[in-house]
Amino acid sequence: RPTAEFGYAAAAAASTEFSLGTVGGGVGARAGVLKGGVGTASVRLDCGVTVGALVVLNAAGDVVDPATGLPWMAALIEEFGLVAPPAEQLAAYADHHREIGPLNTTIAVVATDAALSPAGCRRVAVAAHDGLARTISPCHTPLDGDTVFALATGAVTVEPDEKTPAAMSPETALVTRVGAAAADVLARAVMVGLLAAEPVAGIPTYRSMLPGAFAVKEV
Questions:
Q1: CB 22 within 8 Å of CB 73
Q2: Using an 8 Å Cβ cutoff, are 125 and 102 in contact?
Q3: CB burial of residue 150 (10 Å; 0-12, 13-18, 19+)
């Protein structure tokens, strides 16, 4: 089993060059009956703080709405240009959908360069779980061991502004904004992991089972 040394080795090997989908922990990951994988997303807030998420999507629940064939929160990933796949592909997905129910654990980390206390990081991690609940249904089931870690580098200090309520402490206001962003980027990261996955051991991917979702829209 992995030890602390694995973590140190991973940190030492980290760089700005990385792969998504069926890599690392994503190799054995599933998303319901589809292949899961590694996904990431980030956002820069108007206050200068960056919030990012990295997830290994390995969920028992569905990341795809069986009624539409689209990810539950597809509006968050408009850059992929997804469209509703044809009826025959939806029917094939529905038939496959009933076949298995694996045991899973989705693990994620959300990170920010904001200056947050340990208590603030904990609140951000709690808020980030909303990103899983928005994109996986059902989520947090007895079959899942979903865990989200949060960290803050403290590189950016945000001064209170007119948007900060007078009765709210500066950190509470910042944690609220970072937590909301963490939920959004984690939701996007989940869908990126789904779309980037490549097939392994006969497990179908979103792209292979619902290829019509990637049809070019007519102008």
A1: no
A2: no
A3: buried
Q: What's the rounded mean pLDDT across residues 146-171? A: 82
Q: How far is CA 207 from CA 24, 84, 198, in A?
A: 20, 13, 9
Residue 111 to residues 29, 139, 158, 213: CA-CA distances in angstroms?
22, 22, 16, 31
Distance between CA 98 and CA 120 in Å, rounded? 41
Q: In terms of Cα–Cα distance, which of 27, 21, 36 is closest to 132?
A: 36
Based on the number of CB atoms within 10 Å of its own CB, is 127 exposed (0-12), middle (13-18) or buried (19 or more)? buried
DSSP classification of residue 31: E
> For the whole model, what pTM was predicted?
0.90
Check the CA dihedral 215-17-30-110 and report its sign: negative
Mean pLDDT of the 57-73 span: 93
The per-residue DSSP string of 55-82 comes to EE--BSSBSB-TTTSSBTTGGGGGGG--
Mark 8-30 as b/e (b = at least 16 C-beta within 10 Å).
eeeeeeeeeeeebbbeeebbebb
Name the 3-class secondary structure at 170: helix
pLDDT in tens, 100-131: 556 789 999 999 999 999 999 999 999 999 99
52-56, 95-99, 177-181, range with the lowest pLDDT:
95-99
pLDDT at 218: 46
